[in-house]
Design goal:
By secondary structure, the protein is an alpha/beta fold. Helices cover 40% and strands 22% of the residues. The strands form 2 sheets. A 5-stranded mixed β-sheet has the order 2-1-3-10-4. Strands 7-6-8-5-9 form a 5-stranded mixed β-sheet. Helix 8 (201-207) packs across helix 9 (213-223). The chain starts with 8 loop residues before the first strand and ends in a 14-residue tail after the last helix. The model has no long low-confidence stretch (mean pLDDT 93).
Length: 259
């Protein structure tokens, strides 16, 4: 019998993904969120940590149970930055930020707030222009917020979601392609990696080169959750419902395929 090949694993190279990927015994291909979504959909990856909206948009995958990047309140790194005390008329967006963009659109429409959308500037860390706001996610959001501090206001989308629904928001999930035969084994290994990293969080914080230990401790312990339990599943269902309500999804997911 031919030995099974190791899975082709993809992951975003963001600070929030470290506790889910560090220590994986095989090779990991890192990339931009939208690139990973395309490669997973094309069958160039077997497993990838990608946006929850990608699953809702294309629900052919199995979801690794009990593992996610989520928040239960403010998330710090997914926000709309805007000038304090001003109503913004346009939001600069990155179309590649699929979950953040869909979440922002849902929240704005629930507030009956209509704004125009424009492209991000080439330099995401440049100052805001006039009455424009900017949607930022991940490490670039952290860099922007740490660069400008209180110069701008930050509409934290995790906090806004929790205020609206009372539920966690799920940003990313490990998704496995349907033809992968060893899905249960891979899922168990990914859970074990997460569990081990949760016991070694202090070491992960010390290993970080760009962001300070104080910030990493705050971010990992106060902003992020790494489970995908019943509340997170209800949050994902509510996100699906709102996306459908506001025309962002054509078809809903009847039942999650969990491994």
């Amino acid at each position: 019998m031919q030995e099974a090949l190791p899975p082709r694993l993809g992951c975003v190279q963001y600070l929030n993904a470290r506790p889910l990927a560090r220590g994986w015994p095989g090779t990991i291909q890192f990339g931009h969120p939208s690139l990973l979504c395309r490669r997973l959909a094309a069958g160039e990856l077997d497993v990838a940590l990608v946006s929850s909206f990608e699953f809702l948009r294309n629900p052919i995958y199995s979801i690794v149970d009990d593992v996610a990047i989520a928040s239960h309140g403010p998330v710090y790194s997914v926000f709309v930055a805007h000038a304090a005390g001003q109503n913004f008329r346009e939001i600069e967006i990155d179309p590649a930020s699929r979950t953040g963009l869909a979440l922002m659109r849902c929240l704005l429409r629930e507030r009956h707030q209509l704004v125009n959308e424009g492209p991000l500037p080439d330099d995401n860390l440049s100052p805001l222009d006039g009455q424009r706001a900017r949607l930022l996610i991940g490490d670039q959001a952290i860099r922007f917020r740490q660069k400008y501090g209180e110069r701008y206001s930050y509409w934290d989308l995790g906090e806004a979601w929790h205020s609206l629904t009372g539920l966690p928001f799920v940003y990313a999930l490990w998704l496995i392609r349907p033809e992968v035969v060893q899905a249960k084994t891979i899922a168990a290994s990914l859970r074990a990696v997460r569990d081990q990293n949760m016991t070694e969080l202090e070491e992960i914080i010390r290993e970080e080169k760009e962001f300070s230990p104080e910030f990493c401790a705050f971010y990992y312990r106060n902003c992020l959750r790494f489970g995908f339990g019943e509340k997170e599943k209800k949050g994902l269902q509510s996100f699906q419902d709102l996306c459908a309500k506001h025309g962002l999804l054509e078809n809903g997911v009847d039942q999650l395929r969990i491994v």
